């Protein structure tokens, strides 16, 4: 299962958000830096209204949603790349995740300590990015030293690697993260092999006050984050209210919905953040639906039919024959598999078929 790491400065709402995402109180949330020391890990359900609708069509009461892992990582401070605060632990943990959810404080509250003295989301973002870049520069420098000897001997892979490292060094030195480097497809593949921290895809979670959620897009702090994300990363951002979500944990779905309605919103933003993180990880969903269960299966975008089948069981991929596929929208519109067959929307696909988000499938395979 792919992991998304929740990062940010201390006291920006990371642990509160983690508890909201996991619908738990696993992470201690308190008003002091380094409240989180050991990273908390939680499996988070990906909200998807399509699953319940498919379950009704299949006449099953068993629903199995898609899920991803979130990791609540210790707060980073300036100087983390040199071991300040919990820097070494932070950097080691973030190296293990596949994407970054960067929580940014977008609320004023004199009762919640800000380690930098005042709220300035762009400054906070740049502190974290700089520490990631400095750590990457150290890793790149060490890698260059190792690669130069191989490159001099004529090793083609080493020559290509050294060329990319030498292209990367001035980019990082100009305080630009690796994920903004202009690179060819081959270079991008090689870049993943380096496992650089600043190369990881990022989404910004703008943590706003409870009273600001309904008008979050007018929040000047959120607007600054949005402008920064567009200019520097072309990254996504999602306004959320971790405080509201922490209050929803103990409520029933009906009471939670009523609570949000009183605030003038349909959602605190956490559901949108989960879905956006799912997409950031390069993931999508296909479904199987029968009398036993309706299930959402997570696959990487671009997976072909045998790979999609292999997510269910490796035998399905090895012995793949055909996939019976119908699009979600067609199945819902027509109301049943039988009707989809009659309308010519139920089709057989072979090994080269690239699965689409929302496909409903049944696999034929040899045992």
Keywords, separated by commas or semicolons:
367 residues; alpha/beta; 14 helices; 12 strands; six-stranded mixed sheet
Topology of helices and strands:
Blueprint lengths: L2 E5 L6 H9 L17 E6 L4 H9 L4 E2 L2 E6 L14 H8 L4 E7 L15 H32 L3 H18 L11 H10 L7 E6 L12 H13 L3 E5 L1 H7 L4 H10 L7 H11 L2 E7 L4 E7 L4 H8 L1 H5 L1 E8 H7 L2 H6 L4 E3 L9 E7 L2
Parallel strand pairs: 1-4, 1-5, 3-9, 5-6, 6-7
Antiparallel strand pairs: 2-4, 8-9, 10-11, 10-12
- Sequence stretches where pLDDT stays below 50 over 5 or more residues: 25-37, 83-87
Total beta strand runs? 12
Let me know the average pLDDT.
86
Largest sheet, order of strands side by side?
Answer: 2-4-1-5-6-7
Structural class: alpha/beta
Number of helices: 14
Task: List SSEs in N-to-C order.
Answer: EHEHEEHEHHHEHEHHHEEHHEHHEE
- Gyration radius from CA atoms, angstroms: 23 Å
Distance between termini?
26 Å
- Main sheet specs: 6 strands, mixed
Q: Considering DSSP H and I runs of 4 or more, what fraction of the residues is helical? A: 40-55%
| Overall morphology | flat
Strand percentage lies at 15-25%
